[in-house]
From TrEMBL:
Record protein name field: TTI2 protein
Domain of life: Eukaryota
Entries under PANTHER family matching the protein: TELO2-INTERACTING PROTEIN 2
Organism of provenance: Dicrurus megarhynchus
Gene: Tti2
The family this protein is said to belong to: Belongs to the TTI2 family.
Stored InterPro entries: Tti2
Gene Ontology terms: cellular component: cytosol; nucleus; TTT Hsp90 cochaperone complex
Lineage of origin: Eukaryota, Metazoa, Chordata, Craniata, Vertebrata
């Protein structure tokens, strides 16, 4: 957040780091994933003009994270899973705002075909956000 809009200078490298952390579980407390979701949220807030061109990659990574968190049956406590789902949903809502509703359009088909309640609930929150 100290860099503000100047973060755009480092977006390409930062995007690779964010995607790498989102892909891999880091143990029961998921500290790295929670931290990187906070970083992503801050990045979206500050570099919002550059997010539309990064939408496909970030949307895919966040959807994969939602699915992985829901389906992983490891030692991760339920409150940590809930926090991951919440932060990922908040990132999707922010992405939708800076991409003029494109996320909602892209998620329409996913929401209707998804049968998992927790993932559907996250997608519903994105669809209903204003």
């Amino acid at each position: 957040s100290r860099l503000g809009i100047l973060i755009v200078r480092h977006l390409k490298r930062l995007e690779r780091v964010i995607l790498g952390y989102l892909e891999v579980s880091d143990g029961p407390e998921e500290e790295a994933r929670l931290g990187i979701l906070e970083t992503l949220q801050c990045t979206i807030e500050h570099a919002w003009p550059r997010m539309p061109c990064r939408l496909p990659v970030l949307l895919k990574a966040l959807l994969r994270l939602l699915w992985d968190v829901h389906t992983e049956r490891g030692p991760t406590p339920e409150p940590v899973r809930a926090a991951l789902l919440h932060r990922a949903t908040q990132c999707l809502i922010l992405l939708d705002r800076c991409c003029q509703g494109q996320v909602k359009v892209l998620l329409e088909g996913v929401h209707s075909s998804c049968e998992e309640n927790r993932v559907r609930e996250c997608l519903r929150k994105v669809q209903e956000s204003s």
